[in-house]
Amino acid sequence: MDSIKISTQTAIGFKLAQFRPAYRRLLLPIGLITLLLAPQTRQSVLLSLADAYWAVACYVAFTLSLYHYLARLFRHPNRVVNLYHSSPTYQVLFASLLGALPGCGGAIVVTTQFVSGRVGFGALVAVLTSTMGDAAFLLLASQPKTGLVVIVVGCVVGCLTGWCVNVMHHEGFLRPKHTSTSPTHQCCRNHSPSIEQTAINLQGKFWQWLLLPSAIIAGLNSFQVDINSLLSLPTLTMEWIGAVLIVVSMLLWSLTKEISDYQSTVAEDCKSFSSHPMQKAAQDTNFVTAWVVVAFVAFELIQASADIQMSAILNDWGPWMPMAGMIIGLLPGCGPQILVTSLYLSGAAPLSTQLSNAIANDGDALFPAIAFAPKAALVASLYSALPALLIGYGYYWLFE
Asked: Which long-range contacts does 326-329 make (Cβ < 8 Å, 24+ apart)?
């Protein structure tokens, strides 16, 4: 009877699994197409998508392609790596520099090295404080000067915080004694299904073919050149092209990975070490763009449907804004942080909020830390929250 009961439960579970929606990311491009077809929302969504492509995605793709090509050139070990492991002081310095690199790669490296015993707790706090994750690409692409300032501030604060932690705690503080699994991204070692690998290859080709012409048009737009008038095109032609390209890129992105939990939703996709730099750039670009699109479209729809000025409402929050930026920064993953940066770029959030979020933001590096050293992850996040509040409120009271 027990075997029959188990078999029945297994069969029911299999039947239910058949009706679970696959590739839930498809909800985004389907939703965008629906909004573009609806007359009530077409105009505002069209302009939001065009702005997301020409003013954000193109610059992010260009920045990421340069980053991944340069990363391939400097991949080989050198004397700096040996210096990095020579003392806790140098560990904090280089951990802060690795965290300051746009993206989550450097921070994930230091986090896994802490778990394996190669660096100390001060280095872990330093890298989580200095990293800004994928939101750094968005800020650098849209406002390079501000992006560099925020990154430098995060790096300096990361160094100071890490050195203070070294004074208070020994090198192996809160490091787990035994780990049953190597602290690496499991998904990076698994083979992707054929449909996902095809989508990954296609989105790499998408940006490989369109990066240069898109970057040229985006640059002309930045200098207030009306491309429609320049090329004698009908009104809104370039806007429709941008919106269509965004929808296509989101469609490809939606098929590159299945989401099943919080981490797979807010963390960037794992990339093969041997992947072409353009393919890596395409994966990161579409991840960042997806969150930007959600922020831009939601922002416009809220303002259009309820006649609400989000910037005015958020400005009324006044001294609570740096606190809000810090609290969101404590959330693991890059998705929520990209939303904060999008609000800053749209003028809805002040720079103090961006600063507190950037310093408190741990990006995707928090996931391996939570998985293999949860106590260390919690304490390190709290340590990074303190300077985030200090810098955020310091800038708020002095300049805002």
From this structure: 326/356, 326/357, 326/359, 326/360, 326/385, 326/388, 326/389, 326/392, 327/360, 328/357, 328/360, 329/356, 329/357, 329/358, 329/359, 329/360, 329/361, 329/362, 329/385, 329/388
